[in-house]
Structure formats: C-alpha cells, structure tokens
Amino acid sequence: MRTRLFCLLLFAASLCACQSDPLAGEGPLPSRRDLMRALRQSGAMLVVYGEAQGNLYQALADSMRAHPEWRGLKLETKSDAAVTEEELTQKPLLLLGTAISNKIIKRLAAQLPVRLEDRRFHFDGNWYEAAKDIFKLFVYPNPLNVRLPVFLFTGNDDREIVALLKQKYSNNWPEMLRSGWGYEVYANNELRIAGNLADSTWRFDRAIHFDFSNSKTTLAQSGHFKFTGQSDLLPKNRLEALGAHCEATFSHICGFLEKSCPPLEISYRLFGSVEAKGLQQSSMRIADVNFDQMEVSVVLNETVRGDHLQMENELLLRSLLGAPKTEGLEKGLAIRFTTNWYEKGWDHWAQRLYCSGNLPPVADLLNNDLFRQESDLVMGCTAAAFTDFLIAHWGKEDFLLRYASWQPGATERAQLQIAWEKYLAQRYADCRNVKATSEKLPYLKGYNFAHEGYRVYNGYGSKLAQQSIRKLNSIGGNAIAIVPYSYMESPTKPNFLPFADSGGDENDESVVFAHAEAQKLGMKTVLKPQIWLGRSWTGYIEMSSEADWQAFFGYYYRWIRHYALLAEMYQFDALSVAVEMVKTTRQRPDDWRQMIAKIRKLYTGQLTYSANWGEDFEQLAFGDQLDFIGLNCYYPLSPGDNPTRQELEQRFEQVMEKAEAVSRKFNKPIVFTEIGFRSVQAPWKNPHEEENGRPQNMEHQKLCYEVVGAGLKGKNWCNGILWWKWPSYLDFRGDSFTPTGKPAEAVVGAWFRGME
Q: Tell me, what's the pLDDT at 24?
C-alpha cells in the first residue's frame, strides 16, 4: 500500500513539476519585455522543424517568410538535423512540430512548462490526446540561453499543427508574435485554455489563467441563426428581438436579390465585452465574420453594439453571390442593408465625410489592396454609398450581373468618378456647416493613459484598465490622453501607416472602451495617436524628395482621418493631430495647415498638436489653426546631481516663460500634453532619457513633481497638464515614469485636488 501511495505521489509530483518551475536553477530570468527586446535587437528568428516532416513545414516557412510585415525581422529556417548548437544558443527560436517529429523540442521538453509525451501532452491537470489538440507557447526563455526567447507550436499531429497555424495566421503571419497569450491550448480548432506565466519568474500563475471551455452555450435559435455565449449574457426578450431583426434583414436581402434564402445555419457568437472576445479570439473587433465556419462574433453591451454592423449580411451575400473580385462591393452591399451602422447609419457618416471634403475617391474604393489596409470606418460607409450609387447608376439587374467579376480599368474608373461626384452632390445637397464645438475644456488634470503589457487582459480594453482609470479619478484626475500607435520602418522613407487592430494592441475597440469608462466618471478624453519608429523617433522624420514628402503626408492623412472619424463617432473631447513631428513641422508647415483644415471639418471637438520641447514648440508656425497648443515638456531642469529645490524651481520658471510666450503669440492656451520624470537618480537632467543604469530614486521623482506643481500655480495661460504616464494596469512596474505606488502619486493627488 505504501509503495503504491509513494508511486502515485511521485507521478503527481512529476505532473506538477512540468508547470511549477521548469527553469529552476537558471539564475535571474529576463522579463517578457526583455525577451521581446532581445528579439527585436537580434533582427532575426530561426524557425526549426523536424527533418522527417520537412516538406510540410518548409512550405509553411516559405509562406511565413513571404509576408511583408515582419517589421525588419528576418526569418531563417532549418531542420532539426541541420541546425547547429551555436544557432540554438545564439538566435531567437521558433520550434514547430511534435516531441516525436522535432528532436529539439524533445531535447528541451523537460524545461518547458508543458509535459510532452508521444502523441499527447499534459497541462493544467489535464491530458490532451486528440490529433487536434495543440499547445502554443509564446514567449519563453530559451533553456539553452535564457536571455533569448523561444516560441513553440506543438501538439500531437504535425498536419493539425500546420492546419491551425494557417487558419490563424496565414493572412498575417507576424500577428502570431504580436497578439495572443503566453500559452494557449486548442481543442478541435477552438481556444480552450489561455494565460500568461508570471513575468520574470515564468511560473504558472492562476490569476492570469483563463478557461473558455464553457463559453459557447446555446442561448437561442431562429430560422437561420444559432446564438451562443455565456448563459446570462442577454435576457430572452432581447435574444428574440435580435433573432427577429437578423431574420428580417435576411428576408430583405433575399427579396432584393430576387432569390430564395438558402437554408443556412449561422453561428452567432455573443460576447459581453471587447475583453471577453479578445481573450478568446485574439480579436477585439466589435464584430467579426468567419466565412469558413459560417460564424459571426459580436460584442453587445451598453457601450458598443456590434450587432448594428450586421456582419451576418456578408455571409448571406457570399453564399448567394460568391466573392466579388472587387472586394468593396461585398462590404458596401452588406453595409447598405444595415439600419444603425455605428449608431447613426452609413448614410450619415458618408455624408459627414463628403461634406467635410474627406470622402475617398473611386480609385481608392476599387483598389483591393488599399481597401484592405485603409480605415474600415472610412471605407465602410463610403463603400455602402458607392454601392448605392452603382445600383442607381446601372440599375439593379446590371449591378447584380457585374457583381462577381467586375474590375474596371482606368478609363471606366475616371468616368465613374465624374458620375459619382454628381450623385454625391445631389444626394448630399444639404451640406450644412457642422460647427466645431465652442465648449471650452476645463482645466485638464490627468495623465497619458499608457497601454502597458500589450495583452488583452491588461491593456486599454480590460477590467484592469477600468480599475486603473477609476484609481486616477479617485485621486482627483479629470482627464486622460489615450494613445494608439502606428509604425514607420524608417524616418526617411514613407510607408502606409497601419492601424492597430490585433488583440494586444491599442486597437479601436480598446481605445473606445477606455474613453467610455473615463466618460462615465465625468472625465475628459484626448485622443492622441502617435507613430513609433523603433530605433528612431518621429522628430527625425524627414523626406529627401518632393515625391516622398507628398507620399508621407498622403499616408499620414489617411491615418489621422481614421482617428478624426473615430473621435467624432464616439465624441472624444479633443484630438491631437500629431505628436513631436519636429522636422516635418519646421519644413512643411503649409502641409500641416492643409491637413488640419480638412480634419477640422470632420471632427467637431478641440484640436491640438503635441509639440516637442524646444524649437518644435517655440517656433511653431500653425498654432493659429489649433484650439490649444500642446507641449510635450522635457526641458532639462539642472545638469547637476544634487541641485537645490530653488535651482530646479528657477529653471522650471524659465520653461514657463517660454510657454507663456507661445501662448501670447497665438492667443491660445497651453496644455502640457506630456511632462514626466522617472523614479531614478537625478531625473531632472534629461527627463526624456532612458534609465541608462541609473539607480532607483523615488524621492527625486517626487521632488520634480513638487517643483512642477508649484510652478504651474497662477499660470492663467495654462489650461492643464497630462503627465507621462499612468499605466493601464496598476501592478505594472516596467517603466520608471509611472507614479503609481510611489511618493509622487500622493504629491500629484494633492495637487489635483488643490486645483479644484
């Protein structure tokens, strides 16, 4: 009996050990951020697959390498037989295959947080033995060199591993590095388990572990729809109303097409929040469509109505008409049959774009590549209006005949542009001037709200973000700046600016969630989109030819137009048209004037530009175009290691004099759209600089906060301050700029309350 009990205990211990601390004895371990930084710095990732399955994985690797959006990361591929020991220890690794097919996976298995055996694996107390059971580990310290990352996609069957990889990422391979969880378990192509290992210790952490096994309960069923979700998501009467509305729209579409509605069964998945959807699907979009699985996924709550987008219309059109060669036709026709697209309807938003001079031309709508990259807000309502125009211009019968194969040439596009402009002039003849808001913002007391962690559960769209905003409000904060990012590969080469849309990014849905949570508390919101250049900075953006300058401003306009429309749709209080674009503002002020004039006609809130300290701010040329002038204030306050408080106050007063001079020049208020100090030794020297090995010193950060607070008193030309920065989750400790849990938090709270 004792022997049997001992064996059982030993077996149980072996199962737990695979998850508890597999890297024990490796010394201090890097954080997740450290590993991702190491990946970027290496500039390459080595994909290693099993030689026995070489043909299967080599084709997959070729597809991965061909994707253009790796942002400077070079992919290399080798079989487990060809890879060298030096490569295994000196390069970031992506391991593909099973413990049978890939000997490198088998070699490292004992030091991974999952127990791998022949054709089965064990995780979180369960064995997974089916062919379609898959385990993903992204990212983890490489046991052969813990300073470098290893990524793992494994399971019980190589073909199923490849199939799931293609299903999830074939349209955007780099997405697998930017979104998702630290670990994921899939069963039959459905995400069942997800979570993150504890940062820096890499141990299993139940607090950030999620089980989605019971998230697809059948709630209701109508003629064509099966509604699933958590059992308490919607009351019966609302489900019945939703089903009736979907069925009525289907009947309307079938009647328009003069066809019988096919006997489709559409899976209609409901989620109560963008976070819940993002946790399970890695997409926080308020509505998604999956043509292969005949499924729509919709977020439905008091803030967002994903059902208003009626993505199910696309499934019906695809079933009846097939996929058109001109993609905008399907999207446009589907939206044309919606009634409350983004609350006010597609016709309202198309009119706003047209009347403000921001409606895209026909050529943009008919360019499939551009249509996919562009703003879904801008292109969605425009495509619906254009489809409505084509039906009127050609007649319904001719439109339906052309629908599947129509791809017009340059001559036809030019002719359509002329007819389209006449149609718009008649349809939207009543272009009433939409006046910008005259409401003056209160004195802003807040922070740049930083999307930290880059995970669904701790970013802008999370419950943790909600808690963080409430905490800021509780200490007297009345405003936040919400900061979505895009990316440029080089400061000297123009490129299309992508919109953040993966689950872990500052996507529109999470931005809107943070905005709505702040609004509920009576706080003001500033939408402050920024460009990230990796190893460079927006202040260095400078083109070498007129053609490149025109291309840059064209790309930038498309990008900021999206955020202007988003800000108008959801009524943000202010929009920053750009951040720290030093060389562009100095060399091309007229381009900025033209762009701001167009954006002002679309967005009715307050406009600003967040100028960098120094010449960008002090010599700003277009301050007259703004409602208030933003200053990202990182002026040094002292070169010394131990200056007196008086010296710091005197230097900050000199900064105030510079700011007041700009305010007087344009007769516009100044808002500190950024100012901040790290909790390190002597942060006053160059406040914007990295830590660079300086020791922690919270008292020095506190002193800087006190100096700024005292210096701002009585400055009537200043209308607020948005400190850099407040994290999206309060436990964040990855950046010394944050004041949370430090003496500076008490200082700023007292100052906020004292300014009431």
A: 65
Any domain includes 234: yes
Say yes or no: 202 and 219 in one domain.
no
Binning pLDDT at 50, 70 and 90, where does residue 437 land? low
Q: Are 461 and 505 contacting, i.e. CB atoms less than 8 angstroms apart?
A: no
Beta bridge partners of 444: 720
The residue among 261, 46, 7 whose CA lies nearest residue 144 is 46
Question: Are residues 468 and 574 both part of a single domain?
Answer: yes
Task: Let me know whether 419 and 460 are in one domain.
Answer: no
The pLDDT of residue 231 is 76
Query: Which of 183, 211, 239 is the endpoint of a domain?
Result: 211
Average the pLDDT over 650-666 and give the result: 98
For residue 261, give the CATH number of its domain: 3.40.30.160
Tokens 């904060």 found at = 477
Alpha-carbon gap, residue 516 to 511, rounded angstroms? 9
> Within 13 A of 387's CA, how many CA atoms are on the CB side?
23
pLDDT (tens digit, 9 = 90+) per residue, 355-369?
999 999 999 999 999
* Residue found under tokens 């219309």: 313
C-alpha neighbours within 13 Å on the C-beta side of residue 668: 21
What is d(CA 469, CA 730) in angstroms, rounded to the nearest whole number? 9
Residue 4 lies in a domain: no
Q: Of 320, 315, 264, 321, which is closest to residue 288 (Cα–Cα)?
A: 315
220 & 203 share domain: no
- Note down the domain range covering 595: 444-754
pTM of the model: 0.85
Q: What is the CATH number of the domain that holds 69?
A: 3.30.379
Total domain count, the chain: 4
Residues in contact with 678: Cβ distance below 8 Å, sequence separation at least 6, in sequence order: 687, 691, 694, 701, 736, 737
Residue 147 lies in a domain: yes
* Domain final residue, candidates 163, 188, 211: 211
Identify the CA nearest to 630 among candidates 556, 575, 553. Answer: 575
Whether residue 725 has a cis bond before it, omega within 30° of 0: yes
d(CA 621, CA 637): 26
Alpha helices in 152-288 (DSSP H): 158-169, 175-178, 236-257, 274-281
Answer yes or no: do 250 and 316 share one domain.
Answer: yes
661-683: pLDDT as tens digits: 999 999 999 999 999 999 999 99
For residues 508 and 539, membership in a common domain is answered with yes
* pLDDT band, very low/low/confident/very high, at 434 (cuts 50, 70, 90): low
Query: What's the pLDDT at 26?
Result: 62
| Whether the Cβ atoms of residue 391 and residue 333 lie closer than 8 Å to each other | no
Alpha-carbon gap, residue 320 to 310, rounded angstroms: 17
C-beta separation of 446 from 473 below 8 A: no
Residues composing the chain: 756
Distance, CA of 316 to CA of 252 (rounded, Å) = 11
Flag whether pLDDT at 199 surpasses 90.
no
| Residue 328 CB-density burial (10 A; 0-12 exposed, 13-18 middle, 19+ buried) | buried
Question: Are residues 411 and 464 located together in one domain of the fold?
Answer: no
Domain-located, residue 51? yes
- At 626, which CATH number? 3.20.20.80
88-125: per-residue pLDDT in tens? 999 999 999 999 999 999 999 999 999 999 999 999 99
Burial of residue 41 (CB within 10 Å: 0-12, 13-18, 19+) is: exposed
CA distance 42 to 64: 18
Instruction: State whether residue 268 is helix, strand or coil.
Output: strand
The answer to whether 500 and 485 are in contact (CB under 8 A) is yes
Q: What is the 3-state secondary structure (H, E, C) of 129-156?
A: CCCCCEEEEEEEEECCEEEEEEEEEEEC
Instruction: Note the pLDDT of residue 12.
Output: 42
SS3 call for 54 = helix
According to DSSP, residue 189 is labeled T
Report the chain's mean pLDDT, rounded to a whole number.
92
Instruction: Identify whether residues 229 and 258 lie together within a single domain.
Output: yes
